[in-house]
């Protein structure tokens, strides 16, 4: 586990990334609410009034894609930019699991989605970073962390050290509806290594398996995470042909 000062630079701004399905931004209100909180707490400013309509217009006509709304402080106040990109179906509820490499960041990266993402590499660029505060596991650089043990869902608390994702919130709501017990408490490496299931949540990728931690095999997805993934697809109105066919069975991920 490497320790380095990777605290983000607020001057680079904050952003939100939204999944678009059949011309509609997914979890739009949740994303805008989180962005408003960040703008208020960090810059003492409000979200531009036109931002919501701009997102809706930008999503129109996109079958499967993402929108990125970035807000950056400047001498004349805040400015915002909006980018739209297509997303390949294989990137949504991906079958391929993530390899995680721990990196210690004292206090974590915090509760805001900073533009400054140093030290939070995605697994497409190698092993993805799993941010830790000492020995306590917090979050992946692009996703929230979950484990299942004895049919109970475990995830680190949204205590100001992690970015509480919109997919995380949706999953916890689904768990309540499905009668699945969910506990927010500290997680450590041994908790993942001894878990029945390990996975990540992200607003574009949905649920993806966590396959390894610092080279040690993790169980990946299983019955609970597949059940939650099915419910999350329904919540997002995601047709089967616009996502990976299934979350892999646990046996497919074992090493």
Question: Could you describe the 3D structure shown?
Answer:
It is a single chain. The chain is of the alpha/beta class and 255 residues long. It is built from six helices and 14 strands. Strands 1, 6, 7, 8, 9, 10, 11, 12, 13 and 14 form a ten-stranded mixed β-sheet that branches. A hairpin with a 2-residue loop joins strand 13 and strand 14. Helix 3 crosses helix 5. The longest helix has 16 residues. The radius of gyration is 18 Å and the shape is globular. The protein starts with a strand and ends with a helix.
Short descriptors:
31% strand, ten-stranded mixed sheet, four-stranded antiparallel sheet, 255 residues, single chain, alpha/beta, 24% helix
How is the topology of this model organized?
Blueprint (H helix, E strand, L loop, with lengths): L1 E2 L10 E8 L2 E2 L2 H16 L7 H9 L4 E11 L2 E10 L11 E7 L23 E6 L2 E5 L3 E6 L2 E4 L10 H13 L3 E3 L4 H5 L3 E6 L3 E8 L2 E2 L5 H14 L13 H4 L2
Parallel strand pairs: 1-6, 6-7, 6-13, 10-11
Antiparallel strand pairs: 2-3, 2-4, 4-5, 7-8, 9-10, 9-12, 12-13, 13-14
Helix pairs in contact: 3-5
Average per-residue pLDDT, rounded, comes to: 90
Order of helices and strands: EEEHHEEEEEEEHEHEEEHH
- What's the Cα radius of gyration? 18 Å
Count of DSSP strands: 14
Uncertain residue segments: 245-255
Structural class by sheet pairing and helices: alpha/beta
Task: Please summarize the sheet with the most strands.
Answer: 10 strands, mixed
- C-alpha termini separation: 23 Å
Count of helical stretches = 6
Strand content: 25-35%
Helix content: 10-25%
């Amino acid at each position: 586990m490497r320790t380095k000062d990777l605290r983000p630079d607020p001057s680079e701004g904050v952003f939100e990334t939204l999944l678009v399905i059949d011309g509609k931004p997914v979890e739009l209100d949740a994303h805008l609410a989180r962005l408003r909180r960040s703008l208020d707490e960090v810059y003492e400013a409000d979200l531009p009034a036109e931002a919501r309509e701009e997102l809706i217009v930008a999503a129109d006509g996109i079958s499967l894609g993402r929108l990125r709304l970035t807000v950056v402080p400047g001498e004349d106040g805040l400015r915002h930019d909006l980018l739209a990109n297509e997303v390949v179906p294989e990137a949504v509820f991906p079958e391929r699991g993530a390899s995680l490499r721990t990196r210690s960041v004292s206090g974590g990266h915090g509760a805001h989605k900073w533009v400054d993402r140093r030290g939070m590499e995605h697994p497409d660029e190698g092993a993805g970073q799993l941010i830790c505060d000492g020995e306590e596991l917090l979050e992946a650089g692009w996703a929230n962390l979950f484990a299942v043990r004895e049919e109970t869902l475990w995830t680190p608390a949204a205590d100001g050290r992690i970015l509480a994702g919109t997919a995380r919130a949706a999953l916890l709501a689904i768990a309540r509806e499905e009668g699945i017990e969910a506990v927010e408490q500290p997680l450590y490496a041994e908790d993942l290594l001894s878990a029945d299931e390990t996975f990540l949540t992200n607003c574009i990728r949905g649920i993806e398996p966590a396959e390894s931690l610092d080279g040690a095999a993790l169980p990946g997805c299983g019955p609970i995470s597949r059940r939650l993934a099915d419910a999350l697809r329904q919540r997002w109105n995601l047709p089967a042909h616009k996502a990976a066919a299934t979350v892999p069975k646990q046996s497919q991920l074992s090493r």
